[in-house]
Amino acid sequence: MWTRLARRVVPLAFLAAVGAGVAVAATGAHTGTVNSTSNAKYGALVVNAGGRTLYHMTSEKNGHIVCTGACAKFWPPLTVAKGAKPTAGAGIKQAKLGLVKRPDGTMQVTYYGFPLYRYGDDQKRGDVKGEGEQHIWFVVNPSGKLVKSAKSGEQTSPTTTSMNNTTTSSGGGYGY
């Protein structure tokens, strides 16, 4: 009887373990590495380790995160595992990288104090479909400015503050 049970349970346990590993790999894909790349329309941009454009939501100020819940599903924050630090890639200043604690307790990567997000409709490297979305989402450039317009080149300086490149936040909302 135990042999028959073992023949059924062991393969199921193996499948469960593999499934859990895939789930961890899918959710743990955030390395916290920030790189720079060049874009024909917007110039130099800040991107994640996979080359996907990173954005900032201008209604987030002074370390207060408002893009949570449904907003964070469409605008995934760039996060790192607890205890990990963000890493500067090509064209990025390590000293300007930091972390902010999200309302759910995860740690989100900041650059020049800007919490960083990807855009759900950006499907591949080089996509910048989120630029100017709802007049509050903007691409961040490697010098720590928000790219507000490709034509005028209007840029703004960081509006969030941090202490030792780490800030904390409470509250929530959808950010819209």
**Terminal CA distance:** 59 Å
Helix content: 10-25%
Cα radius of gyration in angstroms:
19 Å
Q: What is the typical, i.e. mean, pLDDT?
A: 79
Note the main sheet: 5 strands, mixed
Shape: globular
Mind explaining what this structure looks like?
It is a single chain. The chain is of the alpha+beta class and 176 residues long. It folds into two domains: 30 residues; 137 residues, no CATH class. It has two helices and twelve strands, in the order H-E-E-E-H-E-E-E-E-E-E-E-E-E. Strands 4, 6, 7, 8 and 12 form a five-stranded mixed β-sheet that branches. Strand 9 and strand 10 form a beta hairpin. The N and C termini lie far apart (59 Å).
Please provide a brief summary of the model.
The protein has 2 helices and 12 strands.
List the helices and strands and how they pair.
Layout: H1 2-27, E1 33-39, E2 43-48, E3 55-57, H2 70-74, E4 79-80, E5 87-88, E6 97-101, E7 107-111, E8 114-115, E9 137-140, E10 146-147, E11 155-156, E12 166-168
Parallel strand pairs: 1-5, 6-12
Antiparallel strand pairs: 1-2, 3-9, 4-7, 6-7, 7-8, 9-10, 10-11
What are the key terms here?
176 residues, alpha+beta, 5-stranded mixed β-sheet, 2 helices, disordered C terminus
